[in-house]
Fold this sequence. Notes:
CATH architecture of the largest domain: Sandwich
Strand order of the largest sheet: 1-2-3-9-4-7
CATH topology of the largest domain: Jelly Rolls
Largest sheet: 6 strands, antiparallel
Order of helices and strands: HHHHHEHEHEEEEEEE
Number of strands: 9
Number of domains: 2
Radius of gyration: 16 Å
Mean pLDDT: 86
CATH class of the largest domain: Mainly Beta
Strand content: 25-35%
Distance between the termini: 23 Å
Shape: globular
Number of helices: 7
Helix content: 25-40%
CATH superfamily of the largest domain: Jelly Rolls
Amino acid sequence: MDFNVGARLKEIRTAARLSQRELAIRAGVTHGLISMVEQNRNSPSVASLRKILGGVSMTMADFFQEETKEQSKVFFSPHELIDLTSKLSDINKQNNKRMTLRQVGNSREHGLQILHERYEPGADTGPMMLEHNSHEGGIVITGSLKITVGDQVQILRSGDAYLFDSRIPHRFCNVGDEPCEVVSACTPPYL
């Protein structure tokens, strides 16, 4: 069964007792974007959804998590990672430019978010630069990834790494011909 992003957003907004306009103002987005997402007429980019959820102080992990995981869990198999992005079906299926972000465990419990990221060729976090009050770093495992941090731009390949203050506007894009996989960490958790 497909995850209904629009219905979930509306559920969260109404539970917070906010109108679409109030959420738009809090999130710094247009009222039209909130309306289109709730009607499933627009599947938001990762950056847009994160910005909208910031208006209700919610992480993407909380948005997509369907059940509470055992908090004392230490080890995780691949199927136990929390899928944060593949449920954004429209944006991820356009031109096979899919991006998936899977989180290890409960990031809030540990104050650290660890992600296994996969970017298909052409996948991009979106034209809206990401900004959040964290620090993040990662290592490219396979493929290549163009990372923009402020006015610095670099294409990283297998074995290359990054580390920066996430308050600086940033963006990730697979500019290669093969999938790119990254293992990253962010503290405090962002998504």
